[in-house]
Structure prediction request, 205 residues.
Amino acid sequence: MNILRIASLTAVLGLGLLGSVHATELPSSQELKGPEAFSQIEDETERSRAMFKEAGKVIQHPRCVNCHPVSDTPRQGLDMRPHEPPVVRGPDNHGAPGMVCSTCHQPQNVDPVGNGVPGNPKWHLAPKSMAWYGKSLAEICTQIKDQDRNGGMDMDELIHHMAEDSLVGWGWNPGGDRQPVPGTQEKFGKLFAAWVHSGAHCPVE
Prediction:
């Protein structure tokens, strides 16, 4: 076993032990409504706003916001504390040279101790242009629609991203005792698509 593998194993076990200190999370008690729940709202603009507000249960959940920081440091846990051990986003949002995200975050969740270490093949931070931490839902909504700040995605691409991207889907399968985001990715995808097709109106501050 070479030095790099030893260092990686030590980091993974360390993350597991740190996770066990905070291993008090429970399944989410929040339900996520599907688009049909808003059909009684006749005004399309108000219906659209209501659906995005419902989608905000997922978008503003710590599972999602933790990887959309405004700084170079990711966050973790329901309390959105700074990442332990200290790490930075690096030049390509995949971590610093010598300590990239995949050093500890494997293609799947690893649960050796406590909450273990979350994983996904795409594990990385969202670019700073997509930072959500500390922003209102209305601000996030405007940001999501702005192709200069959403990675250049059009609305169809956004629907696909929300409904099918596996890294987004990790929020419903976070591993260990972590609280999943409300609902299912399928229901969230349908809700997001319905919001888009109703005009993609943003909530009012």
Notes: Residues 3-197 form one domain. Residues 1-23 have pLDDT under 50 and may be disordered.
